[in-house]
Amino acid sequence: MKIKDIVNREIVNLTNCEQEPIHIPGSIQPHGFLLGLKEGTFTIDFCSENCEAFIGRTYSGLLGNTFSAAFGDDALKQLRDYIANGHMLSSSLLRLQLNGSEFLCTVHYNNTVYILEAEPVSKDIRDASEVYDQTSQFLTYMHDTHTLKELCGLVAKGTREVTGYDRVMIYRFDKDYNGEVFAESVREDLEPFLGLHYPHTDIPPQARELYMQNLLRLITDINYTPVPIFTVDDGENKNLDLSLSILRSTSPIHVQYLHNMGVGATLTISLIHKKKLWGLIACHHYSAKNISPEIRLAAQLQGHFITSQIDVRQSSEEYEEARKVNLSLEKMNTFSLGSASALQEIADAQDILKLCNASGISIVFNDKVYKSGIAPEDDEIKQLANWLATYTVNSSFHTDKLIDYLPEMKSTCEKASGIIYHSLDIDSNNCIIWFRPETITEVNWAGDPAKSIIKDKKGLSPRNSFALWKEIVSCKSKPWLQPETDAAAAYAFSLQRHINLLIISLEEEKYRKLSELLKQTNSELENINWISTHDLQEPLRKIQLISSRILSKEADMSPNLQDSLKRMNTSAQRMQTLLVDILKYTKLKHTDDSLELVDLASIIDEVKEDMTETIAEHSTQVIAENLPKIEGIPFLLKQLFSNLIANSIKYSSPDRQPPMVKIIGEKKLMAYTPEDKHRYQVIHVTDNGIGFEQQYAESIFNIFTKLHASSEFKGSGVGLALCRKIMQNHKGYITASGELGKGAVISLYFPVNEI
């Protein structure tokens, strides 16, 4: 059987330091030993080199054997029961006797392997009642604290008392994972770290990910020698994920970092809040130190106290602030918006600044700026509003450091380092923006954050200096609190509703004025129509009368003069016909007669009687078949069919005599288009006249449109336009189809009320 170690010997450099595989070091710390057992058979597949020091068995002698063969059936039964009862990774540790020695074991499962880590039972175990008393006392003290900072200070003190470490820090992350020592309990002779900041590079992403998975991390001696893990060499790239391991060996960069700080041993407990790494309880000792698993669990309980209270304490701290801003919000919601000029009154209201503790406010509406307090110039506000509308897609945004997004606006830092923005429209730069000026602050760093990783002739190493390094932060405002952003959002929503109502009101006013103007214009047009159809007809009649008299009395006039008089008479008659048709069209536009049930067969009979002379003159055959009763206006329907029959007679073909007009109703209801769900009664008016080219099927319904010269066919070009208007008044449709030299078909679609 071939055996190999799985020690990771990759060299860390500047290109891969943030991807260092710290979860698979292939080695452990020496204060315990590790076994990797195959699922199902419990065959020992991984084994740390130091097993002989703890149980007198070499790793080579253990690998390949079953757990029961190595330690007995009783030990295997205890292990199986522990796993079956769901105790893995719980606060309940597995106590096993292995080769005559007592061990406290943690067990977890990873990729078909049970990983068992064993540590000898300590001979110097603190009495459990003492730990319990300290924890109970801590709970009593905890209820006496009010703020999160006070609670964290109490936890730091309690954790130090339980564990005995020289320094215990509550380390809190910001949004970029830079850390701050938020609370601390430290040995009196040591320099305090309280308030110091550490750059995010001190804890790289992969380390933060492991802190999320494994909530407790222990290094008992910084100067330890890593113990390699061996396995049976039966697979390529065979390895063991130690993400959840207690004994996992530490990154050499992190070990060097702790050396540079002068630390001898550490305990780190993760603080998880809302599924994110909120912070750490970081315990430092300045010499080697190990604590029992029971004490570690007691310390971990301190972390649970913090995470369980974060929301409660933050809510308590924000409650008073929320009460104040909500009071201002209530006052602002009493403002009404009767006109755009009232926006300045809103901007001038004191409570609009108080509701989010801002120093300035601007409202942009229809490219005009209404502002008060400490705010940028109007042009700068418009520029900012345009950028924010694009950047947020007309939604919302807030920041305490605007120049991180708009470096070119550094000149406005003094007035507007922090902003809360809410769009007031979906397709414009209308918005409301609150401003906060810069608050110049001094941040104390534990060493220069720009030198967190140093490259020297030995390769990469963490920074050596933790001397106080001060940074002056400018162009940054006081952070916006959650109650402030919530109140701003609530008021922006309320203002948006008011503005929408204002826009509707302005639109209504505009349409009201347009309607009045339209009524006035229509009235003037009606007057013009009246003049056209009545006053202008009188001189036309006189022209016709005079020209007729001259033609009848002056028999010896020249042929040219006689022809001119006839053409003048014909033109006057054509103009008179046009004026009558215009009067009909105007009357049709304004009709509001109610519909009634009309028998189309009767309507056609009346039309034929009215047109007896015209029909007889041209020997026209008018055939009507299958005509239904429809909802309509009788006099308009008579006008409709009169125009259509007259049109067919007018455009009859000399090659096909006599002229024939068929008016036939479809037996079934039809749809106007395939997509139309309504049903229509369809009437076809077909003739055998001269027809037309299909490309003109739509344009022939336009008013004054004629396809033939006036000298060839008489008419005003209004007839089919009148027909379309009549069909529109009946909420129906009219279409035409034709073929030149063969005839035309006019189709009428009358809507049917289906119950």
TrEMBL record:
EC identifiers of the protein: 2.7.13.3
Listed GO MF terms: phosphorelay response regulator activity; phosphorelay sensor kinase activity; photoreceptor activity; protein kinase activator activity
GO biological process, one term: regulation of DNA-templated transcription
Catalytically driven reaction(s): ATP + protein L-histidine = ADP + protein N-phospho-L-histidine
Enzyme class: transferase
Similarity section: In the N-terminal section; belongs to the phytochrome family.
Organism: Flavobacterium album
UniProt xrefs under InterPro entries: BphY/WalK/GraS-like, GAF, GAF-like_dom_sf, HATPase_C_sf, HATPase_dom, His_kinase_dom, HisK_dim/P_dom, HisK_dim/P_sf
Record keywords, A-Z: Chromophore, Kinase, Photoreceptor protein, Receptor, Sensory transduction, Transferase
Domain Phytochrome chromophore attachment site, first and last residues per copy: 147-304
Ranges where the Histidine kinase domain occurs: 531-754
Protein name: histidine kinase
Pfam families listed in its UniProt record: GAF (PF01590), HATPase_c (PF02518), PAS_2 (PF08446), PHY (PF00360)
